[in-house]
Amino acid sequence: MHDSFNPDCRKGMIDALKNQKSHAYYLDFIPSVSKNDGLWGGLAIAWKSQTSALAKEFVKEISSFTPVAIQNSFRVTPRINTAKERISNFKESAFSKIRITAGRILGK
Q1: How far apart are CA 38 and CA 59, in angstroms?
Q2: What ranges do the domains of the chain cover?
Q3: What is the DSSP string of the chain?
Q4: Separation of alpha carbons 67 and 70, rounded Å
Q5: What is the pLDDT of residues 67-89, one digit of tens each?
Q6: What pLDDT, on a 0 to 100 scale, did the predictor assign at position 41?
Q7: Torsion angle of the four alpha carbons 46, 48, 53, 56, in this order, in degrees rounded to the nearest 10
Q8: Has this prediction a pTM greater than 0.70?
């Protein structure tokens, strides 16, 4: 399964796999990193098994998803770019409405 580091995809995988009784699964088979546009990438695997549950490769293994997700939440640049885009859209919309209103008032 691909994009196992995307929070929505990961939640969907967990929801689909947690109640089934025929497969074990490992969500961090190939981990990913924080991408420019969020958490993407990563491969998860599921295999037919008599013990259906989340599997770990090593006894004391800790998933790298949580630290990467925390790191991604501190990324400011995408938030700044989104704010700039919203401001620009608002400004364009406001100027357009002002031009339309001025045109009506001036009879053009």
Answers
A1: 29
A2: 1-75, 76-108
A3: -B-TTSHHHHHHHHHHHHT-SSEEEEEEEE---EETTEE---EEEEEE-SS-SB--SSTT---SHHHHHHHHHT--HHHHHHHHHHHHHHHHHHHHHHHHHHHHHHT-
A4: 5
A5: 777 777 776 677 777 888 999 99
A6: 87
A7: -60
A8: no
Q: Which two tokens stand for residue 67?
A: 């630290």
Query: If you write DSSP's letter for every residue of 7-28 in order, what string do you get?
Result: HHHHHHHHHHHHT-SSEEEEEE
Residue 51 has a pLDDT of 78
Residue 41 dihedral angles phi and psi, to the nearest 5°: 90, -175
**pLDDT tens sequence across 28-71:** 888 887 777 778 888 998 888 887 777 766 566 667 777 777 77
